[in-house]
Amino acid sequence: MKSVKLNLNPKMAIKSTVFFMSTLLMVSCFNEKETSEKAPAEIAVNQEMLAELTAPPHVPTPIGRRKAKKLVVNMEILEQVGTMTDGTTYNYWTFGGSVPGSFIRTRVGDEVEFTLSNHPDNKLPHNIDLHAVTGPGGGAESSFVAPGHEKTFSFKTLNPGLYVYHCATAPVGMHIANGMYGLILVEPEGGLPEVDKEYYIMQGDFYTKGKNGERGLQPFDMQKAVDENADYVVFNGSVGALTGDNAITAKVGETVRLFVGNGGPNLVSSFHVIGEIFDKVYVEGGDLINENIQTTLIPAGGAAIVEFRVDVPGTLVLVDHSIFRAFNKGALGMLKVEGEENKKIYSGEIREGIYLPEGPGIQNMPTTDEIVEADIPAKSFDEQMEFGKQVYMQNCFACHQSEGQGVPNAFPPLAKSDYLNADVDRAISAVVNGLTGEITVNGVKYNSVMTRQMLSPDEVANVLTYVYNSWGNSGKVITREMVQKVKNQK
Ligand SMILES: [Cu+2]
Questions:
Q1: pLDDT, tens digit, for every residue of 355-364?
Q2: Which of 12, 63, 236, 243 would be 107's cystine partner, CB 3.0–4.6 Å?
Q3: Is residue 10 situated within a structural domain?
């Protein structure tokens, strides 16, 4: 019974004893049917098995009906440089080489023998606090391990649920901020109900010396972390870990289960999937199931299991609905659903999920004149193309789409655009000053608003060079001087 674990005040304790006794009565009535009614601590294990560990967004095979076992988990800590976003790298500290760390899947009653190895190339000692552990520090005290060493401890899983694990070595916040967190699932007796697709997603906030998008290897910024002023808020450790080719997938009619965690260190997540309603949410990763939910709150150091059936094809966009984090700091992922349209459920005029909360027509024009200079001007055509593509993916992609194809009735195409190719200054002006009013692109009329893009002259030159040299366009090279000239005309 769960009361063993709770730390109750006296009044609660009385209540809980009454509850405990009445449960005992109930149990004694229903007891006959299965061993499953045993207190988790009493569940015997006789076989040993090596735990399957997976990197996100994948999860190990479901437990199903397997009996409780001695489960051997071998987790290796690796400090390694990885990509935060195009052009920006970060020295991640990881459990198993990924952020979040390897997913651990257990069942109630398992005896987990956990070995934590700290790779000899690492610089620091680490440990692990698993929220699924009943015991001091969640294992932290027994697992503190220096580089080139390993530590083993064991624990029995008593409470089903989805739990966070993280490093708890001082300064704890710094170890978590560098990516040292992951999820451990404790399935109930008999396993979770079957679904078609399962994925592992974990949010985290990152603090870098340079601001969002600044190039190069970015060191951790302690002061920003203390101030809770995140430069990046991301799913699965980096910007784009779940978008484009990295998107997770499902087919129309399938049921999807997402194991969603939040490593923090600071921010809570308002987890939402644009264009979908959660049929079920295991609130905070526990037993309580809520139904028909739009957005579920996932605290730092907490988790939730969300489930839904996908009914129509398209791209569902996963966000932290603290929405600037999604569109400006990276907390955005995609679930691509393929299959037959169902016009009854969704009429489907726009195929890809575009999200403009206020609609393109009423978004405010930015008023500030402060435009940040790009740190390094491109030195060659190839560099212009490379930098330009990055600017495109960060600033234009959402509307004009990955291949410049645009979105029918909303955003004009840039691919083979006669409007673009006819007049370079006019195209520069669209980016620098914004564009509004009726225009005709390839014979189709658009009457909407493109807000002025807050980019440096170099960035404008690069992105337009990229656009002009992609998707069958006229191949012009735009220089910062050409951009400057158009700016001065204003
Ligand atoms: Cu650590």
A1: 554 433 333 3
A2: 63
A3: no
